[in-house]
Amino acid sequence: MTRWSESAIEAQLPPETVLSQMEMAVVVCDRFSNVIYGNAFARRLFGFDGDEFIGRSVLSLGIAEEDHAQAAELARHVLKGGVWEGTFSNIRDDGSTVYTRAHAVPLRHPSGAIDGIVIFAREAFRSNQRDQERYGLLERVGERLAGSLELATTLRQMADTLVPQFADHCFIDLFSGDRLIRRVSRHAGGWSPPPGTWAEVDEPVSYPPGHHAAKAMQRRDAVLVEDMAQARYAGPGQAADDMGVTSAISAPLLARGELLGVMTLALSNLSKRPDPHYDGFDRDLVGAIASRVALAVDNAMLFETERETALAFQKDLLPGDVPPRLDGMQIAWRYEPARPLESHGHGIQTQVGGDWYDVIPLSAGRVGLVIGDVEGRGARAAAVMGQLRAALRAFAQADKPPAEILRELDEWTRTLSPARRSGRADEDGPRAPLVSCTYFVYDAWSRVLSFANAGHDPPLLIQDGQVTELEFDSKGAMLGVRGSGVGGEILFNEESRELKPGATLVLYTDGLIDRRPKADGDYYTRDESRRMVREAVAAAADGDVEAVAEAAFEAVPGDIDDDVAIVVIRTSPEELAVEQRTFAAEPIMVSEARRMAAQTFASWGMEPEQAELACLLVSEVVTNVVLHAAGSPAPRPEPALLSGAGLEDEESLLDEELWDLSMELGRREPQVKEFTLRLRRGSESIWVEVFDSDLRLPRIRSAGETDEGGRGLYLVDQLATRWGARPTTDGKAVWFELPVS
Predict the structure, then answer these.
(1) Predicted confidence (pLDDT) per residue in 173-190, tens digit
(2) What is the Cα gyration radius of the chain?
(3) What's the first-to-final CA gap in the chain, in angstroms?
(4) Dihedral (C-alpha) 58, 62, 67, 71: value to the nearest 10 degrees?
(5) Whole-model pTM over 0.70
(6) What's the angle, vertex CA 668, arms to CA 667 and CA 670, rounded to 5?
(7) Which of 362, 576, 637, 677 has the most other CB atoms within 10 Å of its CB?
(8) Per-residue DSSP letter, 164
(9) CB within 8 A of 575, min separation 6: which ones?
C-alpha cells in the first residue's frame, strides 16, 4: 500500500521501468571501469543477448582498439569530477561496427564522493544530425577524389571540400624524398597566415617532437587535440596564440603500407560554429578521409609517373624542340598533350596520343612534310606513331611520289594488326590502327608543293593576305581502314600546287578544333573552332612563324580534349639560285657540262678548291650517265599474248611485231638521247642533279685493280656529303650534295 503523499504514477514507475524504456543506452561503471549496470537499450545497441557484459571492463562493450586510449581518458576525466563527451567505434559480436556518441558524468555518493561513472550513449549515425552531415561529407570526399588523377587537382578539390564546411584550416604535407613539403595550405574566408607562422606551399615543413602531426606520422594513426588551449607546440611554422586555433586533428596519409605525408585540419575563430572543437568521432572521420586521400594521392602519383613516362616516350619519338634550318622555308612547330581528364566513356586518360609530325630532308634540297594522327590514346597510340614515323622516313628516302609513299604506309599500318602479326587473319582481337595523315613534298626552287592525303583535315593557307584552306581534290581514306584479308585497293591521289613567295601553310591535328568546351558546359562545333582558328591566324599573319603557331594554338578557348600538333611553314619571299641546261648524251658533252658547272660555281662565289671538287664530281656523274645512256638499247614493246587467244590472234600479233621491227630497222636517223644538268645553291650547300631517260638506277661497283672503270660512283660516295638516285616520270635523276665552303 502506498503512502497518502505518493501518487499512483510514481508507484507504477520505479527507476528500472523508466531506464528499460529509454531510447538511449545507460551504462554504470564502478571506479575501476567495470560495468555494474546496463539497460535494455544498451544490450541492443552494443549487440548483447543477455547480461554477459555485467562485471566486465567497459572495454567489453566492443570499443575498438584504436579508441582504448580514449576510454582511459574518459575514466580519468570523469573520476576527477569532470564531464566527458565523445564518439566511440564499437564492434558488435556479429562483426558489425556501430559508432556511438557517449556522454559521461560522475556517479556520486550522497556524501559527495565519486563512486563510479554513468555513461549515456546513442547511435551517432542515426540520431545525431551533425554526425549525419559528416558522413555525407565522407561520401562527397569520395566522389571528389574519384573525379581526377592529377595530383594538384586532387589536393585542391580535397581542400575545397573540407574548408570551410569541416575545417577553418587545411594543410596537406607530402614527402619528397626524405623531406616533408607543404602541398596545400587552405584557410576559410580567404584568410592568409602572417609570415613566419605556417609554412607556405612548396616550402619544407619540420614538426617538433611531440607535435600532433609528428605523433600522427609516428603512430600511423589520427591524433586529436580537442582543446588547443591545453596544448602548446613550439617551433617554426606553427600557429601563434593570436590566430585563435581551438582544435586540430592530424592524420597520416598511408597507402600500400607507405607513409606519404600527413593531413592536418584545424578549427579557429575564423568562423562561427556552435562547437569550435573536434571530438573523437571527428577524429575517426578525419582518419577515414585521410585513408581515401592517401589512396587518391598514391594513384595520382602513379598516374603522373606513367604520364610523364608516356610523354617522354612520345617526345623522344617526335622531332626535337628546334626545327631544322632548311633552304627556302621557315618552320615552326608545337606539340601540346592534353591534361588528364575523363572523356568519351573511356575513363580517365593520360591524354598522350598519337599525333605526329615530321620534316624530312630529301634529295636536292627538297623537303618532305607530314602531319598525322593515330586513332586512340595512351602508350599504344604513341608506339604506333613512332613506328609510322620511322617507316615513313624510310619510305621517303626512296624519293617516291607522295601517293606511292602513302600506299606503302597503308600496307605497313595494316601489318600492325595483332591478327596480321600472329599470321591468323581470322583472329578476333584489336584491328589495325586507323591513321589520318597528309604527306607533302615541297621544292623551294620551283615552289611546287606535291601531296597526297589520307583522311586528314586540310591545312590553312595564308596567301595574298587571305586565309583559306588548301584545297584537296581527294580527301582519301585513312591508313589502315581496309582490314586484313579484305579485297580492293585504297587509292591515294597525288596533287600539286604552286605556292607564292611568302605563302604560309598551317598544318594541324584535330585536337586543335575538336571538343573545346564553352563556358556554359557545351562544346564548340568544329566549324566554329575552324572559324576562330582562321581569324586568329589571319590576325597573326604578319608575324613570324612562331607567332602564327602560337596564335593557332590559343585561338579556341578551353582545355584541349586531345593532344595537338601544329606545324607552320612559310616559303621564302626570294627566289633561290638555280641553273639548268640540257645536253646530248655524247662523250664530248662531258667537258661542256663541266664548263657550265665551273662558270656557275664561280658566279655563286664558291671557293676555288670546293668548286674544283664539285666539278670533278659533276664529270663523274655525267660520264656515268653518258656511258649508260649510250649503251642502253632503245626500249621496244614486247609481244603480249592474250590469255585464251586463238592461233589466228597470235599470228596477227606476231605480224604486227614484225612490222614494227621492220619499221625500226628501216629508220636512218638514230634516236637522240639527252641528259639535263641542274645546279642548285642553298645557304650552306649546293646540289647537283643529272636527269636522263634511262630507268636503271646506278649502284656502286667494286672495281678490280686492272679495271678501267667502275670507280666514279665510289668517288662520289667518298667525297660528297650525300648522294643518291631517284626515279622520275620519264627516267631517273642522280644527285649529290656538297657544302658551299
Answers:
(1) 999 888 999 999 999 888
(2) 42
(3) 131
(4) -10
(5) no
(6) 90
(7) 677
(8) T
(9) 501
